[in-house]
Amino acid sequence: MYSQNKIVEFWLISIFFLVGVMILVGGLTRLTDSGLSITQWELFKGFLPPLTNKSWLYYFELYKNIPEYTEQNFNMTLNEFKVIFWWEWGHRFLGRLIGLSFLIPLIYFYFKHGFQFIKKYLLIFFLICFQGFIGWYMVSSGLVDRVDVSHYRLSIHLLIAFIILSLVLWEYLNIKKFNLNYQTDKNNLPLIFLILLFIQLILGAFVSGMDAGKIYNSWPLMGNSYFPDDNNIVDLFKISVFDEPSLTQFIHRNLAYLILAFYIYTFYFYFKRKLNTYFRILVIIGIILFFQIFLGILTVLSGAQIFYSSLHQINTILLFTSSIYLLFISKKRN
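^ thats the sequence. predicted structure below, dont judge the formating
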């Protein structure tokens, strides 16, 4: 018989895996321009995909009423529509699966162990439910007067997904009870590093939402200069800075350099103080971070091709996972 902790461990790591897959599928849904193919929320009705030709035609006719079709995809056939529909349906199905996979065990744990046992998981459950609302809030922004969703709403949607992923991993690490005999050194470098990653995540969503990765497909320069020539330096200080694709890409690039510099400083900080027990995770983070920057460069050079963009997002999950672990062991020392 498995102990209760083993059951909770399996539950949390399963949710972590599902959320990771959800983020990947969500990214591919965005990259394939599939996110607006289902124009209604359909909380319960949409659990099953269309099963008849009549149902397919119904969804296709609804799609024909939005700007993405009338202004951009007006030559689309039913078979082509089915391709983008399946991506969006799969993304929504995973959302429902995550919700049920979290709720049903949570109910079981409540009746088995009481409210005190489950209360630390309620925030995660609330965020999972809230994420469904935010997902529809994002989609609704692209149904009228524009052919894409709002990049601001997209960033909120992605940010919440990574917050859920981080909280699930944190609770899993709490349950797992690793040997945490790490050398003591009070500092907030892992936390600052993680905050920088979250800011970069938001900027990455802006870049994706505005298709900013499809312009200035050169590196290290943006065209013929370091700063994009379709803007001025003063534009960086305007409130509309994040509505400008080239400026957003410029900031995203340079924050990556800052994150790399901060990582090097963090590694040096731990090395100088001979905190040897942190070296393994720091080396892992460094490898993932360098690979992330390399993938970012390939994504830009390729004009944001799906393959490189998707790898870039997968590696983001690895970078967050390793950075959460570093923060955990720095805060949970025995």
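The chain has two domains: 1-177, 180-334.
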